[in-house]
Structures are given as C-alpha cells and as structure tokens.
Amino acid sequence: MSEKNPIDEHFKTHLANAKVEPSADLWSKMEPRLDDHKAGRRGWFIGVAASITLVFAVSSWLYDNYQNDGGLPDNGITIEKPEDNPNTTPDAVIDTPQFEDLQEETPGVNSIADDADKVQPSSSPRRETSRPTERIAQGRQNESQEENRTLAMNTETSSGDVVENLDRQAQDASPKIGVEVKIDPYRYLKKAEPAQEDLAQADTETEKVALGDYAEQQFDNLIQGKSLEAPSKENIRWPEVSINLSPIIQKFTPDTDNSTTEQ
Amino acid sequence: MKLFRLNSTTDQLIERCRDYDRKAQHELYDRFASTMLAVCVRYVKSVEEAEEVLMNGFIKIFNKIDDFSGDGSFEGWMRRIMVNESLNHLRYRKNLFVESEEEDWPEPNHAPMESKETTAALLQLIEELPVGYRTVFNLFAIEGYGHKEIAEMLEIDEKTSRSQLSRARKQLQERVTEAKYLYKP
C-alpha cells in the first residue's frame, strides 16, 4: 500500500466512484426475498401484542366472573344473564326496570336532601308506586334497558324539568363508570325475583326510594370524580330485596362507614 | 416518494431501514445500487452474476443494518459488504488462484473507445483480467487493502498477493498503452 503506482491511480480515479446501472426489475426480484425477514419481525411484534391482549382479556374475564359469581354469599340464588330473566318471569320485569331507573337516572345537581323531599311521598315522577303494577297489567315482559331509560326520561320531561333532563342525558352519555355501577345490582335484583314477590312487594319497593337516592348520590359522585361513600344500613331504607343487594354495594365501597345523608 | 427522497438524508434512511421500513430500503437501494453494482462488476465477470451478488449484498445490508455503528462511512460499510459478497461468490464458483493464469488472458475483444467512455473501457479491461489478478488488483488498487489483509481475505500467501498484483499491473499497463487514450501517464 505504500508506493503509488500510476496504473493503480489511474484505475482508482476512474473506477472508485463508477456507477453501473442495474436492471430495472432488480428491486422487484429482490423484494420478495426481503419479505420473509420483514414478516418475521412484524410477526414477532404481533405475537407479543396478541399475547398481551390475550392475557388481559382472560384476566379481565376471570375477574368479571369472580365479581359476579364468587363475590356473593350463596343464598340459593343463581345468577343469570339479564337477557334470560325477563322471559322467564313477569315479576322479574317489574323489579328490574325499577332498580335500573334508580341507579341510572341520577340527577346531576340535586342534593340528596332535595331528592328525599321530592321523592318520599311516592309522588316522584320516576318512582310512582303505580307504575310497576301498571306494567304488570300491560304484560310488558320484554322491555329492554333502553326502553326503561327512555320511559324514565319521559316521565321526567312530563314533570316539566326539561333542562335537568338534558343535563342528565349528557351525563348519561359521558362516563362509562356509571354504567358499570348499575349493572351488578341489576343482576342481583333479578336473582331476587325468582323469590316470587307479588304486588305486596311492589309496595315495599316504593320504600326503596331511599336506597335509590343513595345510589343516585353515588352515581353523581362517580360522575363528578368524588369518592364513593359507604352505605350504612341504618340510613338506607332497604327493600326486601336488599338481602341480596347489600353485599354487592359493600363490595363496591370501602369498609369505612360514612353515613349517607339520606332522608 | 420523490419529495421524500429530496428531503431525507442517508442517515434518516438508515434509521428507517433499521425499522425495516420497506420504502426506505427501496430508497436506499435506488441511491446506492448503481455504485455498488460497479463494485461487484469489477470482481464478478458477468453483469448477471454481479446483479445476483448485488441482491445478496443488499439483503445482507438490510438484515445487518443494526451492525452499522454509524461511526464510519455508510457507503464504505456497504462497499465492504459488497466486496465480501463478491469474494464469496468467486469462492463458491471456483478456486480463485491458479498460479499460472497467463493462458487465461484473452485477446482484447474491443475496439478502441472514445475517451468519454473511459470508465467503461477500464472496467472492461479489468473484467478481462484473470480472476486472481483481477481480485487482487481490485482489492489493492481500488479498495485500498494491504497485502496482509488481502492475503487473509483470500486465504493466500502475502507473496502470492504481491505477485498477482504485479502481474495484473503489467497486463493492464500493456492494454492501457495499447489504447493510449485510456491512459495519460
């Protein structure tokens, strides 16, 4: 490498940066051979992503199952899918929508005290005593949740509180958490239904107003990002069904007993 | 794509190639294929074979691009890969070095060329060299390797490397002076 040969230099000068154009189709010939490697690498990522997703899905499914099945004391009640129940017993239909209304249709701004005032005498548009019985009479067995919701909204609207209604609609749409809160009591109510409560029980359910208000308050808290308050049995008027409901609610709340400002 | 090409530097292309970005690989290929083919063609006689070597070289470049540390010149790194691929190809084909290759020296089959085609003419002269001469000459004169490195790369004696180089030079000198326009001493 030491001495510079003129021939070497001559060739180097001309050839070091020479260019020879390859065939036009050379890339297309080569590209399939590149695919394998790319697919392999991409497949690796997909594999990892898929397994993470799978683990997440399975664990959440297991957790869900635990929530629904394992968390409850066995009162001889079997949990059923919400869709199954309405077809089995008419009573189920009655109970279910009512609870649903209580949990779901939360007034956004109302304080509990206000609500309690309004609601107590069973004159609340959303919780009239007569409504469930009417439904029984009409034999509506297949009402879906959506129908229940709209029904509740209609009654509210008829009470003249349009602005509030809109407000609630907006709140209904936004937080998903609220939807979850509603679900489990819903299922439990259905469990209670096979216990064959008739109209007499429908009357007792009018007293559930207090429990409903509690639920509404918690729902408001969820929406507004406040922490949940634990229910206390003294301050909540439990319906007969409450035997089944209480473990669930307690499950959702910490053990500390903050008394709810009910009634 | 053309806009992209205007804006992307080789470094950006390399980074994208590390992620196996197919467009970047294509762009890198478009940018360097002709230069790299000129390397391969000096070692491998036919253009078809050189293109095969070129493809293998690019596949290796794309697969091993993480091995490029970014310290030296990327083009130099690619060049070394192409040279190695060419040598592998030659090794695969036949024994590289036969001491007496004088008889392999073909008669020049080209007419004197115009000066503007000097590069092509010189390439052709190299192509006509016996494979051993050609390889050592390429490695030494154009790639810049020393005899010791060449001897290791080709698994030959250093002495052999030197003798091959001097024979290559001698024959090239003859050809070049035959066509005087190719060479101005």
Automatic annotation (TrEMBL), chain A:
The chain crosses the membrane at residues 43-63. Keywords: Membrane, Transmembrane, Transmembrane helix. Residues 151-160 have a biased composition (Polar residues). Residues 74-93, 106-161 are annotated as: Disordered. Residues 125-134 have a biased composition (Basic and acidic residues). This is Uncharacterized protein.
From TrEMBL, chain B:
The keyword Transcription applies. Keywords: Sigma factor, Transcription, Transcription regulation. InterPro entries: RNA_pol_sigma-70-like, RNA_pol_sigma-70_dom, RNA_pol_sigma70_r2, RNA_pol_sigma70_r4_t2, RNA_pol_sigma_r2, RNA_pol_sigma_r3/r4-like, WH-like_DNA-bd_sf. Residues 28-94 form the RNA polymerase sigma-70 region domain. It comes from the Bacteria. Pfam families: Sigma70_r2, Sigma70_r4_2. Belongs to the sigma-70 factor family. ECF subfamily. Residues 121-172 form the RNA polymerase sigma factor 70 region 4 type domain. This is Sigma-70 family RNA polymerase sigma factor. GO terms for biological process: DNA-templated transcription initiation. NCBIfam families: sigma70-ECF. CDD domains: Sigma70_r4. One of its GO terms (molecular function) is DNA binding.
